[in-house]
Amino acid sequence: MCSLSEPGLHRTGRDGRLRLVFRKQGDKTILHDSFSTMPLQAFQPFRTDGAACACTYIVNPTGGLAGGDSIHMDITLDDQAHALITAPSANRLYRSTGDFSSQDVRIAAGKGAAIEYMPGYVIPFAGSLYRQKTRICMEKGAAAFILDFFTPGRVARGEYMLFREYRSITEIEYCGELILSERVVLRPETAGYGGTGFLESSTAMAAIYLVFDNPSIERPLAGALHAMLDGMEGVYGGASALPSRGVSVRLLGEGVRFAEKAILEIWSAARKSVMGTEALSRLHWT
User: CA triplet 13, 17, 20: central angle to 5 degrees?
Assistant: First the structure.
């Protein structure tokens, strides 16, 4: 990954790296190999639905990312493995004096594997600069649930869209074919995003990508999730079938807690429909 600093300038910040390899062993998934450097750490896996899925928390003990910090994560699932990657807290982005903080996540899901990537929501502080890229490469029969969850700042402190730049790229590849490419670029200093047709009065924004190879359930699932959103308090959004393999859900929340509750219910319904696994009981973002 190329440097995100301006050419010729001395780069500041920390480089954090994390590598996780999950493998199917008997009727359960295990963490076969792991490696990390500060400011990244991964907890030992635990299980929420019997012996099938390995759930792992990724944490940043420093509390957030400062200008110049660069995070790289590589997550590999061998054939038939099933892992859920989440976080116990939000991802805080501190004010920067010039350098971007960045996060690069690469996930490889083998044949028949299932990856659930549910990071905590991003809080860009006033004056922050941030870029993230998430790329998922899936083999035949794999499934991937991917969350991109964002807030416009520390709203309780009066920081609404006071960051300098927020950029998020999500790419999903299935059997060598790029089937989804999403790019979000927000620069509040040059454009207003609080008006009609944008965030309006919302203080949380989320996109959920549910990618799987079962065309017969795509439209029924999209319709069911859309109906769920219509009946939820404090959120607005919709669901639609992707052009190839899966469903996308987008929502705006009147607050983080409304959005979290909606994400949990949507995720749980999709889990049951696509993977045949039990609902998630709760989220742990704070």
Answer: 160
